[in-house]
Amino acid sequence: EDGLDGWLRYARLRDCHTGGQLDDFATSIVALNATEGAPLHTAAHELQVGIQGILGLELDVSDSVTDKDTSSIIVATAQAYEDEFGSLPEAVDLIEDGFYLSNKGDDTVIIGSNERGALYGAFEYLSMLAQGNFDEVAYSTNPDAPIRWANQWDNLWDNGTHGPVERGYGGVSIFYDGVGHVREDLSRVPMLGRLLASIRVNGIVINNVNADPTILSERNWDGVEEIANLFRPWGVRIGMSLNFASPQTFGGLDSFDPLDDQVIDWWQGISDEMYERVPDFAGYLVKANSEGQPGPLTYNRTLADGANMFAKTIAPHGGIVMFRAFVYNHLADWTDWHADRANAAVEFFAELDGQFDDNVVVQIKYGPIDFQVREPVSPLFSTLRETAMAIELQVTQEYLGQQCHLVYLPPLWQTILDFDLRVDGQESRTRDVLNGNVFGKKLGGYTAVTNVGMDPTWLGSHLSMSNLYAFGRLAWDPTLDSGAILDDWTRLTFGLGRSVRETIRAMSLESWPAYENYTGNLGIQTLTDILYTHYGPNPASQDNNGWGQWTRADGDSIGMDRTVRNGTGNAGQYQPEVAARYEETETTPDDLMLWFHHVPYTFELHSGKTVIQHFYDAHYAGAETAATFPKRWETLRGRVDDERFEHELYRLTYQAGHSLVWRDAINEFYRNLSGIPDVHDRVRHHPWRIEAEDMTLDGYVPVDVEPAETASQ
Ligand code: BDP
């Protein structure tokens, strides 16, 4: 049990779970019109393998119903089913990628609106069986939004700066060899395709948003084509990140001006070649004019000019352009109290609304800054009325413990997806913006920075895989319950034992609040080291530079004043009702107080605590929760296979320790800065901490740690 199969282990059910169910189980799988290499063919094969694993039954696959006396599992597209049987079951009601599943009656019937949908239906049925669920069902299910993409930030070159996968914690790239080429051994690609298909992710961008133009080199074209071929049987289409300056830096032109005919022709050539090699290519992802990346602003062209240039080259082929709204000036003057990185997206994009081509989708990070432990929803979602939009989530835990900490993310995502943006004073949840209900856009949806690697655990930790699983489930249906999704994942990943499920559920649901508690509270953001690692505590690094998120902490007070009245005006970027709420401390929720307001450390929160005492208490509480994780995991010894058990025990033990480092570093820092003691007198006593000075260690030398607060003495 190394984790490589993730939640698709197809472990054999015990007799107590199958009791009586196998006698009249189907004896064959019928796949109508399945062609080798197409998703329907994959579906039939997956059913065969899955049922063999889960139930121990050997089923044949055929292409027509021959023996009417025995029952079959019929898997087909709606078209093929209708051609064969004359009509569709009544409850079939499908849009693109949707499926119908029925195990009522003699046969089990899986009908996809297309082949991809049929494959999703097969996975759904296998997921039921693997969970010991033999209930009779008959229903159609459809995606909430058409775009459900993974974004991999894989680098072609592992030049040491960002490693083989930028912000990846699961080993080297599954796509590239680290010296500029698509790797020879692409055996992980179909395995990832299988995982993604099972959670109904239908696209994947295969390279870093900080894109290297050499992905377009002659040699890499073949590799890209090969990657697409390996994903295709799983219904996963590939996309590619582009570097805006490629025509100049790679193509040898003297410009990359998006309105220059030569430049347009150059890109048209790229797009044409792409579709010749990869006819189902999904589209491009573009990061432009952000964090030093080139873009159209260099030529005084708008971001829309840039996006539309790409869009026009692939519109005839049916492709789309995901254009990132993560545009800000990382060289902004941090001493200017009216400057605000959180304002950037609306400032850049609001005036462009209506100027994007129909096949451009603006891809927006969930919050206005950058994947922090707590952010309000990006106000851009309620600003762009004429523009297709997708949300960008982050499965890779860049600021959230980097897979060394258990942080189950769906509860965080749901604060964003469920948020009511009050567009025109009406209920308008973010998820209803993404599915087009609020502004009537057909394109839209969900993307997540996934960053799996060659590690057998894919992400670097077994428990982190629940975030990948949940991303797909939520992208299909954002109204699902985070806990219920997790229960499915746990049954599929670790089996049907109740204590395993309950323990993992309780720890996971406590994990994001705990992480928020022992890192950055009240909307002050994660307080990690900001300039390099994005890991571990370093509150001082948040200010004094343009990349930082600016806490504005001084001896008396803390927080970004984002009010319209005195601050950066960010609160005013929301729709009037929401803006009014965030403008005043009285109506701002505690968990965003320091995001929107600059207040004294002695400011009294709605909870009745002062800001500084909340910091102290939260840090002790968070670390206390983390301290329970290894103990609770210990109770599962023997109930989880040893290999995965030990791996997670190591991780959770580390997390418990690191949460103390976090706790003491942050508390010391603000104790020193504010001069206000903890009313419970804990700070500087470092409860539960083992001091290096108290140990005898061989072969170690003392070093100064950065920042000093992370050392307790
Ligand atoms: C930041 C990451 C950086 C990415 C950037 C982005 O630290 O590695 O390049 O976001 O999303 O969070 O473009």
From TrEMBL:
Residues 6-125 form the Alpha glucuronidase N-terminal domain. GO terms for molecular function: alpha-glucuronidase activity. Its EC number is 3.2.1.139. The keyword Isomerase does not apply. GO terms for biological process: xylan catabolic process. It is found in: Secreted. Residues 133-458 form the Glycosyl hydrolase family 67 catalytic domain. Belongs to the glycosyl hydrolase 67 family. This is Alpha-glucuronidase. It comes from Emericellopsis cladophorae. The gene is aguA.
